[in-house]
Amino acid sequence: MKSIGYTQNGPIDGAGALSQFDLDRPTLGARDILVAVRGISVNPVDVKLREARAPEGDHGILGYDAAGTVVEIGSEVKGYEVGDEVFYAGDVTRDGTNSEFHAVDERIVGKKPASLDFVESAGLPLTSITAWEMLFDSFRLAEGGGEGHSLLVIGGAGGVGSILIQLAKTLTNLTVIATASRPETEDWVRKMGADHVVNHRGDLAEKVKDLGLTPTYVAALTATDQHWPAIIDLIAPRGHISLIDDPAYLDISPAKPKALTISWEFMFTRSMFATDDITAQRDLLNRVSQMIDAGTLQSTVTERAETLTVDTLTEAHKRQASGRVIGKQVLPGLSS
């Protein structure tokens, strides 16, 4: 099968960057399904891993979003049959989705939205899982909860922020404040449903306070180390900060006087450790799929390539590394 991967970690224009390989089809585990990949997306994790993690063996295959068709099932698979259309975000400990065929544990796979094609559907899984887990696992909100409280989403125009705003507005009663720093990103987060928009450049704490709101929850999605003093300043006592980026160092001692909770959200945890609740990802993806088809959630895709080649994937990695992507980037799969 055709695959696109890297042979040496480092910059996108360095030796060992993305190239095409011919590999054997994956061998299925008992709970695995084999998917003919017809749509993928690119996320910050692809860039981070390609730059920092050396491949295991001769190559590393990235890609942690996919939509496609089931072509084979493992001996203990119960939820899927050959021909089913699915979408999912995969497992960071296994080869990724930048291949014609991809093996994935059925328990982290959802049914693809019927109203979207494969390429558009591939823009949803990783960010939807991250946002859902942040709201309901990290913040421990209940659906319909949050009345009288507010959520600050720092970096609201990115992939996670775009779906997090929508889920918070659709499934909770939180007031949502999103940050954006350009006219086009301000327009985007309003389109996603943010109640208030503030610019994260300058005095973020003062801008949030000017709204007359004291957020109980802060989703720190980008540049957390830069915004950390402001977050500590603006958040309510006994509030909760959940972050997804990788700051080199955070001094959490200023959080003590407010008795704050600080947690990381990492959507690969369930698949990495085969947790007892691993099927929660399947269930939430099915909910997201149903909400897309019902029109209560909208696609967050803004950039769509016509083909998946080494060149188009390289360009997508460069765009992702720029930090200026609004919403999600998607490409056809190698099985398309």
Automatic annotation (TrEMBL):
Quaternary context: Homotetramer.
GO cellular component: cytoplasm
Record's keyword annotation contains Iron-sulfur: no
GO molecular function terms attached to this record: oxidoreductase activity; RNA binding; zinc ion binding
Keyword annotations: Acetylation, Cytoplasm, Metal-binding, NADP, Oxidoreductase, RNA-binding, Zinc
Compartment annotation: Cytoplasm
Family listed: Belongs to the zinc-containing alcohol dehydrogenase family. Quinone oxidoreductase subfamily.
Superkingdom, natural source: Bacteria
Residue ranges of domain Enoyl reductase (ER) in the record: 16-331
Name of one Pfam family that matches: ADH_zinc_N
Principal location listed in the UniProt entry: cytoplasm
Protein name: Zinc-type alcohol dehydrogenase-like protein
